[in-house]
Amino acid sequence: MMANGKTPKPKTCPICSTEYIPRSSLQKVCHNYKCAIAFNKQRHAEIAAREQRKREREQSADLRQRREALKTISDWNKEAQAAVNKFIFWRDYGKPCISCERQLNYGVRGGAVDASHYRSRGAAPWLRFNVFNNNSSCVVCNRDLSGNPIPYRINLIKKYGLEIVERIEHDNKTRKFDIDYLKRVKSIFKRRARHYEKLRKRYSEAA
Fold first, then answer.
1. Distances (CA, A) of 16 to 45, 140, 167
2. Burial level of 135, CB count in 10 A (0-12/13-18/19+)?
3. 90 and 19 share one domain
4. What total of structural domains would you count in the chain?
5. Which of 78, 84, 77, 81 lies closest to 196, judged by CA?
6. Which residues contact 114 (CB under 8 A, 6 or more apart)?
7. Chain centroid to CA 77: how far?
8. How far is CA 12 from the centre of its chain?
9. Which terminus of the chain has a lower count of CB atoms within 10 Å, N or C?
10. What is the pTM of this model?
């Protein structure tokens, strides 16, 4: 009987699997001292492994911070654009090319589907992250035909309406993005891309 007056329940030794009656609530193994030694060694090894994993996480976080500190505004621009492109991929998943309306091969991520800008990044860099200005396109229209702008405009009006298309066309207010802004863009669109990716996969599984 334990100090609290309750009769202890049998336990199974985690080392030798022998069933035993503990003498106190603190007893973790059977009455064999070899099991107690083995248990302590095991516990110390687990503690050491946890501490090692913690050190590795801290080192990894430190390295990541150092790398981010070395990134230029150009690097952040590329990463923000990549996040937006991934969002566009999943937002438009299953839809045809915005310009030629041919069916896109969404099975080849980053290869057969481009995020095409209606107003190019060179002509209007302040619209590079605008979700209405970014739409899924085939490689031929986007790269070989410079976006194939005439049918792009027609289909963009069908998709969003004339008012939004004209708003894009008349937006000539130049803006420059600092690193903090680009970090927010990357973070926001990574989350949005994951959300749409989960939705698309859920719909595919249900179909």
1. 18, 68, 75
2. buried
3. no
4. 2
5. 84
6. 136, 137, 138, 139, 142, 143
7. 17
8. 43
9. C
10. 0.71
